Amino acid sequence: MSEPLRYPKADIADLYRHRWEIEHGFREMKQHMLNNELTLRSKKPALVNQELWRIVLAYNLLRFMMAQMAYSLKDTEPYQMGFKQTALYLSAQLSLLSAVALGKIPKFINEILAMVGSFVLPSRRQRHYPEQ
C-alpha cells in the first residue's frame, strides 16, 4: 500500500468512504431495526440465515422508499434523510397499506412521499482538519 502509483490516495479514500457507508448501514440495521438486540430469535442455522436476509431485505426496501422520497425534492439526496424517523414513519404507514382500497393505493403512496420534507436532516457544517 506504500506504492503511490499502484494505490493512489484518491482510490484508497474512495474505498474507505464506501466501507464507511456499509458500516453505517449495519449500524442502522442493528440499532434502529433490531433495537440493539444482541441475538437473533432463530435457533437453527437455516432460520438464522433466513432472518438475516429478512433484515437486509427490509432495510433495502426502506432505503429504496427513502431514495424515492429524497429524489422527489430538488437538491436532496437519500443520505440527507434521517433513517430512524423515516423508517418509523414508513413502517407505520406501510402497515396500513392492507386496509387501503386497491384504487387508492397510488394516492396513499403519493401522500407518503409528500412527507419527505419532514425527514430531511439539517446540513452539516463543513469539517476542516488542517494537515499536520
From TrEMBL:
<dbReference type="Pfam" id="PF01609">
    <property type="entry name" value="DDE_Tnp_1"/>
</dbReference>
<dbReference type="InterPro" id="IPR012337">
    <property type="entry name" value="RNaseH-like_sf"/>
</dbReference>
<dbReference type="GO" id="GO:0006313">
    <property type="term" value="P:DNA transposition"/>
</dbReference>
<dbReference type="InterPro" id="IPR002559">
    <property type="entry name" value="Transposase_11"/>
</dbReference>
<feature type="domain" description="Transposase IS4-like">
    <location>
        <begin position="6"/>
        <end position="61"/>
    </location>
</feature>
<protein>
    <submittedName>
        <fullName>IS4-like transposase</fullName>
    </submittedName>
</protein>
<dbReference type="GO" id="GO:0003677">
    <property type="term" value="F:DNA binding"/>
</dbReference>
<dbReference type="GO" id="GO:0004803">
    <property type="term" value="F:transposase activity"/>
</dbReference>
